[in-house]
Amino acid sequence: MRLTVEGRGRRNRKIEEYQELLEGNCWADAAALQYQNQQLVQQLEAQKKAMHELEKKYKELQEKKISYDQTLITINKIWNQLVDDLVLLGIRAGGNPQNLHELDHEDFVEGPSYFVASNLPDILASFPPEEIFLRRLLRTFTIQSNGVGLDIKYVQDGLALRHSRTMDLMKNLDEMIVSQQLKTEKLAVVLHGTSSSKETIVQLQKVDASLREEVHNLHAAIAIIHHKHKKYAEEINYYLENKSKEQSEIKRLSSELEESMAELEESRRKLIILQLQKKGASAMTDSLVSSINGSGTPGRLGDRTNTLRQLKDSIEEAKVLASNRDLELQEAREDNLTLSKQLEDLENQLKDDKYVLHSKPYTLLKDQLQHLNVEIERYKGLIEPLQADRNQLLKKDRELSAKVHSFDVVKSSISSYEAKIEELELQIQKLIAERNKLEMKLEETLQDSERNDIKDEINVMASALAKEMQMTEAQLNRSKDAASEALSLRQEANSLTAKLEEKIAERKSLSDKCAEQTVEIKLLKELIEKLEKETQELQIILDMYGQESYDNRTIMEIKESEQRARMQAEILKNALDEHNLELRVKAANEAEAACQQRLSAAEAEIAELQEKLDASERDLLELTEAIKIKDAEAEAYISEIETIGQAYEDMQTQHQHLTQQVADRDQYNIKEQINEEYEHSPSDVKS
């Protein structure tokens, strides 16, 4: 378009020079003038051909530039997506949150200057169009001091710098993955090995510290996303506040534009008519005056021939001027037709909302923006409850680990009590065997002894021993009951262990949900970046629409049409922004409703899980109380068994004493019998 304007200016200058030549050399030969006219026409045709060729080359270069820009946009998009994935995976693996600044793709740092998204359009305007996308890819936005564009070395250095940053992120991610694998292997060795409880506690504390660090890093990432969402919300509020002002301003400017365009067209038509009338009338008046003055002097034949020649020259000049004016009039009509067509197209685009709503860039932008707003609102409602749930789950995990430790202690005490019960059963069996032996001995002594007092004592002792044995059997039955209760308590402990494993599985599922939410956050960032890039592409398309209004006209007409095209482009841009704002507000409201629904569902699920956890805690407390009661009963059983053993020892000593007495009685009886026999034997001899 710029080449067309320059060719038009050169042609107008040639025409003015030709007109001056005709006015200054009015006495020149008509053949020479015709020859010069033909040469000028040939030069004009050659310039037109060259201009058309240059326009074709310019279009080809524009097409190549568009494909080149599309390639650069795709590369930049993929690269930014790779950087986002590396940063988020590093944070997920427990990396350093200092790499989170890589997520801000609009915050470019180059030297001592920092550029943010607010002054980025002004910075981009200072560069030529062919360097904008390349500078976006290289992430370099400094203006060079020498004013020269990008060279090959500068591009290579920028690509090497960005490549090195990406490789650093990949190395950090690899190191974090290796460290996490080592931690997992150590934890598995500790849990499945034969290490002591102190080492296990130390390893668990290390794992807890690493989990805390990961939670802190995730909190930092969520804070950055929340900050971005806050910034977008502020922008939406700002656009909503200025919406009415912009609408009124658009209406006023559109009315003023229509009035000024109508006045401009009317003034152009009047100006063309006046110019044609003025130049034609002046030429005809001069020729007629000269002819009349020549006819008034019949005596001067040379003057008449001169006047006739001048009249012929003026007629030829008028013909040439008329042909030139015809050409200019045709060109003006063509320009007017093209301008009217462009004006109709722009008015249709401005008035017809369906064209805007059904255009491909607008539909893509609309769908992506709606999806993005829905995702932002959804994650806004989900990230904070998930973070709170994660903290609560960590606390509950620590409580459950403490309860498991106490449960192990109770289990060990139960096993020790079972060993003691088995020992007591063996002692009771021994006592029963000794009791049987004593009964047999008592029966033998009862058969051998013949005195009633000894029998009475033995009967009393046997009855006392029977009572004591009944008491021992009762205590043995109690011990058996305690053993059965211990078995039931062990079964309850196993059920509690199963419940604990279920709670651990629930915690793992919740952690998996948190990981899925992290992946969705990453997708949200990718969509935000994609939306920003497509907004920039739409801005470039609007700028291209603003430049399409250039065509073959004069300088003043070009400036006027340029102003009109810019105003129309601004109107289109404002209308598009208005539609974008309406769609964003609508999508935000829908996303808020969906977020409220999901939030209520999540709260209900959290309440249900809390109730289950409270029930499990109550069951655990009841089992702990039952274990304490069983411990007290076991201690009572042990004390009773000790008293029974002491009584048995007393009975054994008493039994030995009685046995000694029985032996003494037997010896005494034997001696008495011997004495009686001895006394009876002398009497028999005497008789």
Tell me what you see in this structure.
By secondary structure, the protein is mainly alpha-helical. The protein has a domain at 1-208. The protein has twelve helices and two strands. It has helices at residues 2-24, 30-92, 120-125, 129-138, 152-192, 197-241, 243-295, 301-351, 353-358, 360-448, 452-547, 555-686; strands at 108-110, 113-115. A two-stranded antiparallel sheet has the order 1-2. A hairpin with a 2-residue loop joins β1 (108-110) and β2. α2 packs parallel to α4 and α7 (243-295) runs antiparallel to α8. It is rod-shaped. It starts with a helix and ends with a helix. The relative contact order is 0.07. Mean pLDDT is 69; it is low at 1-5, 106-125, 141-149, 288-300 and 548-553.
List strands and helices in order, with pairings.
Elements: H1 2-24, H2 30-92, E1 108-110, E2 113-115, H3 120-125, H4 129-138, H5 152-192, H6 197-241, H7 243-295, H8 301-351, H9 353-358, H10 360-448, H11 452-547, H12 555-686
Pathway: Protein modification; protein ubiquitination
GO molecular function: ubiquitin protein ligase activity; zinc ion binding
Family: Belongs to the BRE1 family.
Please, what is the average pLDDT?
69
The count of DSSP E runs of length 2 or more, i.e. the number of strands, is: 2
What is the 3D shape?
A: rod-shaped
Question: How would you classify the quaternary structure?
Answer: single chain
For the biggest sheet, the summary is: 2 strands, antiparallel
Query: What's the SSE pattern?
Result: HHEEHHHHHHHHHH
Q: What's the tally of helices?
A: 12
Low-confidence stretches: 1-5, 106-125, 141-149, 288-300, 548-553
- Estimated share of beta-strand residues: under 5%
Main β-sheet, spatial strand arrangement: 1-2
What percentage of residues falls in helices of 4 or more residues? Answer: over 70%
N/C terminus separation: 179 Å
Rounded to the nearest angstrom, the radius of gyration is 55 Å
Secondary-structure-derived class: mainly alpha
